Predict the 3D structure of the following.
Amino acid sequence: MTDIAGAGVPQGRGPAPSNEARVPVPPDVLAVFRRKPGRALMLGHVHPDADVLGTLLGAGLALEKAGWSVVYGGPHAAPSVLDFLPGIERYTRLARLDGRFDFALLTDCPNPARTEGLIDQARDAVATIVNVDHHPDNRRYGHVNWVDASAAATGEMIHALLTAWPAEITPDIATNLFTAVHTDTGSFRYSNVTADTFRIAAELTAAGAAPSVVSNALYERRPVDALGHLGRALSLVRVSEDGRVAWLALPHGTVPESFVESEELVNYPRSIASVRVACLLREVNGAVKVSLRGKGDVDVQAVAARFGGGGHKNAAGFTLTAPSLEQATRDVLAAVRLAVSGAGQSALAERRGTRATWGTETVPHAPRAPSPE
Ligand code: AMP
Ligand code: MN
Ligand code: MN
């Protein structure tokens, strides 16, 4: 469900007084939220995760409080593991859009194709499309676009938006936004976490989000048979000879789809110390869905882009049509190995190189800061 493993991002936007938005919110985004209340659509992306759902629900609940009538939905239903998000029962699978909307908000959605055609209907049925996202490869498909790749989660951006609007952050809104930030940062562990992430989390906690309730709901509600499924899945993890690539190729039917949806299986191969890139490949409806996670220098988004997908530097994905899972695995591993050795070589050249600057002095070898990823 988590969708970012954290690219190296500029650290810290600096301290700021608490009820002032730290991230500058573009005036054209604010202007839409400050309009006379009308009808709004909170439109999600395929296989919605906590970042998209938490932000759509957080923004939508605030709009309702301001007098708007709000419809929530997207191409797929919310996964049951997120059934604790306040307001989630309002989010439905939409086959088509009914009626007109004054504006549609899309969050965490870099590519209009990830609405499975709903955005095309929205072009006729919606006066203004607002696109708020933290994916660096966002296509800027809205009338109003706000893309901040330094945000750890879209949850941070919607927090800034509600603060600047201003809207009261109720406990329900706080829980939604806290969960968005929590999941996209791997429970505040990835390198996308900044001091601001914690400041925002602190404000959301003060506003009524309960971190332990969110963690329990996300990670302590496995059904009894889940550990058996986990055991079967983990027995399929393989590691390359040099230890730098680990993968898990999951044939259809090995474990139930609902189990895969509720677990971040790719995190297990990723957790091996030597691994630079972890891959999860799973057969779904005759295609192979691939999740890539990188650590350090390797840009897995570039690998995903070669296969028509996208994501972040350290977390990306795509779907492949391949004659078999085995063939897909071979093709993906070939591209991943190339990326790993490419990243290794450029790091080596940099080190051999040559001289790097440290402060005002030039030294043969600048100490590298340990990378959290
Ligand atoms: P996942 O591995 O599905 O958790 O996705 C990781 C990241 O890759 C997320 O930021 C997704 O938005 C992105 N991503 C996954 N699949 C695709 C795809 N088919 N096209 C574009 N981006 C994708
Ligand atoms: Mn997402
Ligand atoms: Mn996200």
Remarks:
- Residues 5-19, 354-373 have pLDDT under 50 and may be disordered.
- The chain has two domains: 27-219, 227-353.
- The longest helix spans residues 325-353.
- Residues 227-353 form a domain with the Diaminopimelate Epimerase; Chain A, domain 1 fold (CATH 3.10.310.30).
